[in-house]
Sequence to fold (847 residues):
Amino acid sequence: MTIFLQNIISGLETGALYALAALGLVLIFRTSDVINFAQGDIAMFSTFFGYRVFEKYMSYPFAVILALLFAVGLGYILERLFLRKALKLGIINKIIITMGMLMVIQGLTVIFFGTEDYYLRKAIEMDNFNIAGVIIQPNALFIIFLTLGIVIIFNYLLKKTKFGIAIRTTAEDEETARLMGIPVGKVYSRSWMIATALGALAGILVAPKTQVSISMMLDIHLKSFIAAVVGGFSSFFGPVAGGFLIGVADNLVGYYWSLDWKTAIVYGILLITLIIKPAGIFGKVVRKKV
Amino acid sequence: MIKISNLNAKYGYVNALKGIDIVVKKGQIVTLLGANGAGKTTTLRCILGLLETYSGEILFKGENIIGKKVEDIVKGGIMSSPEGRNVFGSLSVKENLLAGAYTIKSKQQTLDNLNKVYEYFPILLERKNQMAGTLSGGEQQMLSIGRALMGSPEILLLDEPSLGLAPLIVRDIFRIIQEINKEGTTVLLVEQNAMQALKISDYAYVLETGKIVHEGNSKELIEDDKIKNAYLGGN
Amino acid sequence: MIKIQSKVIKTIILAIIGIIIVGIVPFKTSSITILSTVLIYGIAAMGYNVLLGYAGQISLGHAAFIGLGAYVSAYATDVMGIPFLGAVLLSGIVPIILGLILGGVALRLEGHYLAIATLGFGVTVQQLFKVLKNFTNGFAGRIAPSAYIFGIKIKGVGYLVMLIIITTFLAIAIENILNTKTGRAFVAMRDSEHAAKAMGIDIVKYKLIAFSISAFYAGIAGSLYMHLVKYTQPDVWGTVLSINILAMVVIGGLTSVGGSILGAAFIVLMPHLVAGIPYVNTIPSASIIVTGIVIVIIIRFMPMGLITFLNRFKRRVTNVRS
Fold:
């Protein structure tokens, strides 16, 4: 039982990171109609930056904040530079643009930060504690609650603020949103800025496990897509739920069944979801008008 | 208030508008009539800045608004209820209305506008927390107009408000449009339901394949035999 | 009919010229390998073009099919002892099964949903490559023997010539398919599924055909790759490759068979070209940055692809002459 709970917590921890990345992904997707393939690499670039700051100043909170600001700035620049003028192009062309973006960012990472891996500390470096035989890592709890907190704040932003209405209307019907005077361009840039910040946060939090490296975001990046599909792209919180679900499933399958097969099985869940409910567990299928 | 001169508009290679002239004076209800594809909606889209290629002059309160961004045109005082209503289905009625008030900075004014809209359309107050997508056609049309009013517009562009609605509801809505106009909002009304539109409007233009083929005071047009036969079912 | 025949003749002449050049000019071995890679990707791109450009199905996991072809070919020649040409054919046929599965999924999804679903599909298959060690040897990687046709070992220039022949043949085959009822059904489907259904076009059948054709071509490409490089491991068959194929087809020009090859040439050659520029190549990872920027520029300013740009250029030149 204790092992089971430990696996659940561990699963929620990784799941939280998937959830953050998936939320960023779906935010960009629903507002500016782009599947951002560069998401993982932007997060990686920002984490490298954060690492350098930490290395220099040895203050973790300071480095994290700077890394997030870096990510926000980067998100703004990338959206305006690469995608703003390309709005009219179809989704395929926009995907390829994000691919070009990805290449540029990878290259820049190598130029600025080299090709080595670095170790970045955990967010909370405290001893594990033991509750009724269950070993709990404080860092894991921190990540889980931080993510839940972010989700709650985001929900508040969406439902209770004026800008939240701007996001939701742009996501649903951009032209009509324009007719209301809603600044759709601002919605794009801010969506990108929020998404890249979420990605950077996920990167910083996963760094202790993967090292700060070029390929550090690979797993989260791919799983965030799965989370978005399983949870359902048509809502903002479906992917979040999907992320936690995938994280837990990944862990449980890995422990109780087979480490080898765990990823394949998780992706198998994706396929089954697609067959049974293509719009995702929490999604609604949008029927296109003729 | 709005003066359109020699407006030409294209969709790709198709000439949708071939040099039209329209004047909407402050306080009027002006209606654009014509069959499907005549260019009525295109005209509205030009005013709103939604079209890619268009030339000519569109003066709003004396200033040429061709080439301006949609955002700025809307902020300048032009709000619209688009063809098909286009309510935000996943938002509640109240949230839809708040969306319409996006350009209003003052919370007080937003509240005032909201109450005004609820006065015009009591059903919206009743259903204020309901998802807009679940409203009936008539209710959605009211929401669409109410949403446009939330922006305190000087002129309201209405695109086919009667589309797909039962005659009784259409009468209701047109009555309310008259009320809104009496309280000071200029209205440019695009309609296929010529009879109703002519009844409440001051002046009318008739479009056919991108050109204005007829114009005049609405009272005169109702009596005009040609118009009667072409658009009013010859009664 | 005449239009097709003249295109066929033009393509064959082009191929013959290509073979002669390759036979006479002493290219470096590395250049031969690069050119071979261009053609291999070109084959995959041609098939993918049918799926994306003609049938309008956004599929982002195409590397799965190519990888499957590669592994099937390696297994068939190495373990089962099937002769090379037979293995190549088998490598085209087996992925069709996978294609039908994905096609089945695609029947229920459109646009963005389909894109993400196929992405997940591609990654799932890649995971299977990692896990099914008996078939793929997992991370250790799989080797494949050289290609033998009638007992003669085919490598280097010979392999390239064989590729030219195969590519030409496959290109002509695709042009023919696209000029029939099937091709027209694809285009109708792409432009509006509802309208196509209303016209009586069996969407299910044609979607599955599109996925099958693209899977077949991908499989063959994978097989040809396998016997060129003779070694592979699962990391190759991931999202990066899938998106590269997408880029090849879009950059070259959707709905143009020649465009696919052009796009493949572009994506493969670009990094090498950049490595040749004097100042730029001293900056580490310059090639990836420049390639990325060039891709973005092309998509922004030539969204219809290089081939349209070239055609316009050709027209301008011929107009000047007359």
